[in-house]
Amino acid sequence: MQQDNLKEFDRIGHWVPDAILDLKYGTQDNFLGRAVYDVPYDQLRSGTLRKLKCAAERLRAMGYRLVIWDAFRPLAVQKLLWEIVKDPDFVAPPDRGSHHNRGCAVDVTLADPQGKRLAMPTAFDDFSGAASASLDGLEDPVRTHLQDLQAAMVSAGFEIYINEWWHFTDTDWEIYELV
Q1: Which of 90, 110, 120, 179 sits at 20 to 30 Å (Cα–Cα) from 132?
Q2: Which residues contact 48 (CB under 8 A, 6 or more apart)?
Q3: Residue 89 has what pLDDT?
Q4: Which tens digits make up the pLDDT trace of 109-156?
Q5: How many domains does the chain have?
Q6: Which residues are within 8 A (CB) of 129 and not within 5 positions of it... i.e. 6 or more apart?
């Protein structure tokens, strides 16, 4: 695939058809308590989607399905989030932009093959130390679920964000400009 094609946006469902799209910022089920997307932003860069497809295939072989909480995020939404949570450990300042604003980061969790959400360290948008991607102090099955998720994502070409266990960034993020 040529580098230019890697930068094109495409829908997650075209690459991972069994992914469960639970885009939290399009619902009231987020820390804001209200929807901030008026359309579903279920897109990522094609290069990132290729990696997400690989991770999903590995997870599927282990009996999991990916649940997508957030993907591409418009810069206007980043500004709104920053106004409420001015903590760069959890929300990137809009002048710098987020990897989500580049279309190369994804917030995910796991479900079983029937779509039942599995136990993980915290709920989405937990701005506490419990949201750490560290495996310290976790008990099974949470530890196993997180370990399996991290291993699949890293092996596919994502890096872990230590402050949010659910957030993964494409290791090639620097080729993608802010949108």
Answers
A1: 179
A2: 103, 104, 105, 106, 170, 172, 176
A3: 86
A4: 999 999 999 999 999 999 899 999 998 999 999 999 999 999 999 999
A5: 1
A6: none
Q: In sequence order, which ranges of the chain are alpha helices (DSSP H)?
A: 3-6, 12-15, 46-61, 75-84, 142-156
Q: What is the pLDDT of residues 10-31, one digit of tens each?
A: 999 999 999 999 999 999 999 8
Q: Where are the beta strands (DSSP E) in the chain?
A: 9-11, 20-21, 43-45, 65-70, 105-111, 158-160, 167-170
Cβ 104 vs Cβ 169: under 8 Å: yes
Task: Return the residue matching tokens 């136990």.
Answer: 119
**Pair of tokens at residue 62:** 């282990």
- The CATH number that applies at residue 75 is 3.30.1380.10
**What is the three-class DSSP state of 132?**
coil
Residues in the chain: 179
Give me the domain span that covers residue 99: 3-175
CA 168/CA 162 separation, integer angstroms: 9
